[in-house]
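ok so I'm stuck.
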Amino acid sequence: MATYQAPEVQATLTKLEETDLLEFVDDSIKYLKGMQVPFLSKYRDRFGSALWIVPCREYIIDLCQRTLRHTTVTSPLDQFKQDLADVPEVLSVAIFARRQELVKCLTQLVFT
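replied:
not stuck anymore, here's the structure
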């Protein structure tokens, strides 16, 4: 994702309800695993338009990859939060909670 879009993407994500954001993170991880998720039809109303859905999804995937590159499986939550200091806390906690699944998924992507 282009760095010039990060503030706009973050602003869009912070406008979502917490439950919608967590569901969006889950769907982004499903998408990363190769599953089909109807992002545009599912989230158009929640985002207010379809304009920022794909950039937000890619941003979340980039965050997952970035944190896994800079931390280990045994890293505490505080280290994840420090690495993701520029994102909403609920987002860093959601990524932290799914880190084992993300490690497995991203490792499979690299070796296939």
